[in-house]
């Protein structure tokens, strides 16, 4: 049976012949790079087509695989290729397996072809032709897989290459360079292998005709069209609390209707109000959602790549993170995007190599994240084929800054086992008042990726970010951790409005809207964020892989609190907060002998505020942030009693008497610990379809001991084309 172990011919005919004898594999779309495009501004996860857990059987690729690639090292520990190898020529066809596609190199001595017997009569003839004319190509290791004799078809392939070379010399008028005895030898060899030559040439003719038809009908000669569609049926239970809160329009609810009697100016925002004291039954109905992405990839030089793609989805109102549902970011899915079925530009980027292909530069005018350039080093960072939870995808420190707009970066292969990656991006990059450098949110990330052995891959990361409101932007942990203590948008007591003896009417007129307790609206406090983290993967066996990542995030607010006497020990101090996170994972590839399947188990702690201060009386407001671009902002409170500022009950259902409702507290660390447990099994139905049932469990959601455990499950089906 004719397989991939053929000698390859030089020139275009050799490439066509090689393709003809690998008819068991479908012709793939060209792929420019090997690793994952981790940036998507729906933040719904990306993972490389080259997974950490490889299938032994090579599978047919699909054109959407390129959307999941970028300059970063990703899943396959045995194939953490260098930038120069990843930026392959656009005409080069790659396989969709998880072992590297073998490169073809010219062999100038037939003795290098170790599986050709020197005792065969044809060996001497072939040796003479190869060494004189240099016409046969082979694999770099000098073998043809299996240490067996060359078949007659393989020999015919080499003979055909020799004939082509002689014909080229003759056509070029260089007959004097061709020895007469070589022509005689070629004639004898042609007679001996006439049947095999006829068969192979017939296949070349057929493939040439097929290639011409494909070129005539292809989408574009320079652009590839790909897509991914994810269907998910999802449900949840538990979590009552933190879920089941009530939502009111802005400036309505117990505080505004009863305590101030409508006499105050209202709070300083236009957001809805949340009441988690007077709860109702949590909304946990089964939902059917989708995420759809279409992308275009264009190359102008064969090494560069311009990518553009569009996204839409319908997991609306924050899904299970909504206060009326489970009310925590810890319930968010990886494939979740509440875009109301509207189509938006999701990514626009251009990448190109330089310095002998050792450095890959990335210019991303839209859709940037730190993970666009910095390696996630996670086998589960994939929208449709990786973890089912947002938290399980990658180290949250690589999400700092949230969904940004524009960014730049580079990936430098310093040496074979060592790579340096640098990325910088901002929000509102096109705003003329702040620009690309002075934006209200920015992040600079640096990562060193080291592959000390063939089975171990590690990464050390550092992030320096600026946030105008002190928020991290990861949306994976507690609201308290996201805000470093609930400072953003809060109000605190002031001497002017809250000193002893100040009349109630004067307090009600305080601009904060919470004058009776907290007359000073501090608004958005800017902060500098520094984060350090590490990632680790170890392929113990071909089927078993262990992984881990973790990190610390240090938030230091840049402005001190006022020197008001009513603040006590907090007066004049700068707020701060430190958050920590970690995750461990176990992956088993090809379980039960099913090639392409993947079983994953993940255990970790979502970001937790482990240190904060100074603890201060204050009135925080529900946290409203946009997790993904174009998605409507959804309030999340985690059932944190310090955010329950608009209820006559505490979050544990106890009635409070006036004026005991307020103030609450800001600058308080998380008191309990949430633990995340996740299990999923990915079934490979075909090269283009995967079905993944899975669920995850979070204890003490929001790092609050009074919150009930949440259970979230999904049946996810992924189509790629």
Q: What is the fold-level CATH name, i.e. the topology of the largest domain?
A: Porin
How many domains would you count in the coordinates? 2
Structural class: alpha+beta
In CATH, what is the class of the largest domain?
A: Mainly Beta
Tell me the radius of gyration: 31 Å
Averaged pLDDT: 79
* Strand element count: 27
| SS field, number of helical segments | 10
Biggest sheet: strands side by side, in what order?
A: 4-7-8-9-10-11-12-13-14-17-18-19-20-25-26-27
- Shape annotation: elongated
Strand content: 25-35%
Q: What is the CATH H-level superfamily of the largest domain?
A: Porin
Main sheet summary = 16 strands, antiparallel, barrel
Distance between the termini: 30 Å
- CATH architecture label name of the largest domain: Beta Barrel
Estimated helix fraction: 10-25%
GO molecular function: porin activity
Signal peptide: 1-26
Region (Disordered): 78-103, 631-660
Keywords: Signal
Structure, described:
It contains ten helices and 27 strands. β25 and β26 form a beta hairpin. The chain has two domains: 49 residues, no CATH class; 457 residues, Porin. With 721 residues, the protein is α+β, with helices and mostly antiparallel strands. It has a 16-stranded antiparallel beta barrel with strand order 4-7-8-9-10-11-12-13-14-17-18-19-20-25-26-27. Strands 1-3-2 form a three-stranded antiparallel sheet. A two-stranded antiparallel ribbon has the order 5-6. It starts with 7 loop residues before the first strand and ends with a strand. The N terminus is likely disordered. One of its GO terms (biological process) is carbohydrate transport. It holds the Pfam family OprB.
